[in-house]
Amino acid sequence: MQYHISMTSSTHIARWLDGIAYEVAFWNNVYRWKRTFNGLLAWSHYGSNIELEGFDANGFLATHDAPKVLDVGAGMSYAPGDHIVKDGISQPLDIHYVDPLAMFFNQILQRHHRELPAIEFGMMEYLSAFYEEGSVSMVVIQNALDHSAAPMKGIFEALYTLETGGILYLNHHPNEAEVENYKGFHQYNIIAENGRLTIWNRDEHMDVAAMLEGFAVIDQALQVENGHVIAVIRKTNRVPDELLQNREDKRLLCEELLSQAQNHQRLGYDVKKKITYWKYNAIQLVAQALPWTLKMRLKHLLTGK
Could you tell me if 51 and 80 are in contact, meaning their C-beta atoms sit under 8 angstroms apart? Predict the structure, then answer.
């Protein structure tokens, strides 16, 4: 079976890089305002027991002596929770918040004097380069897999880090690329129908269970009442090396690295990038200051959604 297991193209990588300014501006202003920051912490499970929609994460992790969890593509949400209940006692959980924009996010933590754990640098599509094989009990990916350049590769890489019997938990909005008309990060859709998990776009449809045959099984794939697509994938065997080592990836990354170096030599390139960031920062400064209900009404008026 043929499917993409490498970064799609240098153009796709460049598009992803162009999306960084918006992402950083968004989180900077969530953390700037006391109201939005407190709202974020009230929504997340940080400081309390781990809780995942549609899956008993605490029950699974409590069977391990020293469970380790990765929250991959975490942004700055601290969503899953950082404690587990074991033998009736709530205790700290070894959880790592992982994101490719960690250096930007940690600057935001320092700038706004927020006492939260540092974000660890790591890329979903290359997770095997950051964490040892079989070193993790559970990987959580929420609203991030469908934003990646190669979602199936992200799944393979996450499974690599898991111990045998470990769980990859996915939670995403359905068909987000279709909703967003394939703009920016939104290049893939995720859907669960009749217990089958599918990742697709206009060019390809990937049956995830078929691609995991021999080393992982999908214990659960469903769309819950609020529309979220939830999947629980269990590692059963070692991930084949050929799904992790991809020479095309290295070529594309080297090409994009040199392309970015060339861009920085162009007159006005850095100025343009800074203007883009400060434009988004100004928009988010106002947007995050508005009450939530008003923001949603304005979004509906502007987008029709």
Answer: yes
